[in-house]
Amino acid sequence: MNAFRWFVLLAVVSTGAMVSAQDPIDGVVIRENVVPLMHRKLDRAKDILEGLTLEQYEKIASNARSLRLLSMESDWNVVQTQEYQKQSNDFRRACDSIEKAAEAKDASRAALAYVTLTVRCIECHRYMRDNKIDLTSYRK
Fold first, then answer.
1. Are 121 and 14 within 8 A, CB to CB?
2. Are 108 and 62 within 8 A, CB to CB?
3. How do residues 124-135 score in pLDDT, each as one tens digit?
4. Is-contact 98 107, C-beta < 8 A?
5. Rounded Cα distance, 54 and 18, in Å
6. CATH code of residue 88
7. Which of 47, 90, 98, 138 is deepest in the core (most CB within 10 A)?
8. pTM of the model as a whole
9. Around Cβ 64, how many Cβ atoms within 10 Å?
């Protein structure tokens, strides 16, 4: 997927617009109830970034906790593969690292963990695209 189409997908998710089986982007079809979940994920990640820039450690920690809990919701766990499970576990570990660093009031370590979290997101989304995983075929 080229950068522009990826940007469009992120824009769609961040605005909460619905993408359905009739509107795939480069063969990736997003189940409608995944979009609000991804929007919440993006909001929490933005709040972590804001907390990092302002050194608001409670904001950082609480949003990292929220992201970890979000990753345990049924709408998150839509793919039953070992790789997807690994990706989700890596994401949760990154959330834990952010939370622990924030509790220790270590902005540098929290920022590094945030970068790790971002990489986890990108890698998982790449896995989904590369494997053309169609989320419309999973439970709603």
1. no
2. no
3. 888 888 887 765
4. no
5. 33
6. 1.20.120.290
7. 98
8. 0.71
9. 29
91 is in which domain, residue-wise?
3-137
Tokens of residue 116, six digits:
């790790």
Region of 16 please: left (phi>0), alpha (psi -120 to 50) or beta.
left
Residue 129 in contact with residue 1, Cβ under 8 Å? yes
How many angstroms separate the CA atoms of 25 and 86, rounded? Answer: 25
H or E segment at 61?
A: helix 57-70
- What would the pLDDT profile of 96-140 be if each residue is shown by its tens digit? 999 999 999 999 999 999 999 999 999 988 888 888 776 544 443
Residue closest to 31 by CA, chosen among 69, 71, 74, 61: 74
Number of other residues whose CB lies within 10 A of the CB of residue 120: 19
From residue 1, give the alpha-carbon distance in Å to each of 119, 121, 136: 17, 16, 19
Q: Chain-wide mean pLDDT for the chain?
A: 78
Residue 99's identity, in one-letter code, is E
